[in-house]
Specification:
The complex is a heterodimer of chains A (about 160) and B (about 50).
Chain A: H1 3-34, H2 39-47, E1 54-57, E2 84-85, H3 96-99, E3 108-111, H4 117-124, E4 130-132, H5 136-142
Parallel strand pairs in A: 1-2, 1-3, 3-4
Chain B: H1 3-47
The chains are: A alpha/beta (about 160), B mainly alpha (about 50).
């Protein structure tokens, strides 16, 4: 066979296979978005220093009046360690120091009060790879996993270590 | 076309095929999980 033609055939085959690989990769990312993470799975991921992910908390940041009974309603009452507040997935409602920490290109876990799929759908569009936390903060707390309260504190430069 | 060049092309093709098979397996597993998650969400919605 003519070497030029043979080369073109090989290269064509490689291009087609590479295209298939890319489209399967995209499909995998899309599917991952549909599968919520359980609290235990997220905890295991956070405990692994090689896993790089951010947690975005979409609940309201702080109460406007003191009269409420639901302890899971506001970020400042209870949140996952290291979670970045982004109330209702709206940048205008987030604290300024939190906005600086948000990176749309790293794997993201969206945390709501009870894992609401609607707010997740809205928020997932803002991140390249996003997963929902099944059961939200309620499930995380009920599983007895570590929580924090109070205002958002950005990670200190050179602080090192994980958040758990 | 040299033998080395031909072998390199075949290595690339085999690696890509292995990658595709691996991803295909992962995708079908994820599809099952997504289906389960979807059912759970729908059942949860009906309960509400």
């Amino acid at each position: 066979m003519n070497p030029k033609i043979e080369r073109v055939i090989y290269l064509g085959l490689i291009v087609v296979l590479a295209g298939l690989l890319v489209s399967f990769g995209k499909k995998e990312v899309e599917l991952q978005k549909q599968i919520p993470l359980t609290a235990q799975e997220l905890y295991q991921k956070l405990a692994n220093p090689n896993v790089n992910l951010q947690i975005i908390d979409v609940r309201p940041y702080e109460p406007e009046d003191e009269d409420y009974e639901d302890e899971y309603l506001y970020y400042t009452d209870i949140h996952l360690p290291g979670a970045i507040p982004l109330p209702n997935c709206d940048e205008s409602q987030a604290p300024e120091e939190a906005l600086e920490q948000i990176n749309p290109y790293i794997p993201t876990v969206i945390v709501s009060k009870d894992g609401d799929p609607e707010i997740f759908k809205k928020c997932a569009q803002k991140f390249k790879i996003a997963q929902n936390l099944a059961g939200g903060v309620v499930a995380w707390d009920e599983a007895g996993l570590p929580t924090e309260d109070g205002e958002y504190e950005p990670p200190k430069i050179g602080g090192g270590g994980g958040c758990l | 076309m040299s033998m080395i060049e031909r072998v390199l092309y075949w290595i690339a093709i085999v690696v890509l095929i292995i990658g595709i098979i691996g991803l295909k397996g992962q995708i079908s597993e994820l599809e099952k999980k997504a289906q389960t998650a979807q059912t759970q969400v729908m059942e949860g919605g009906e309960e509400k």
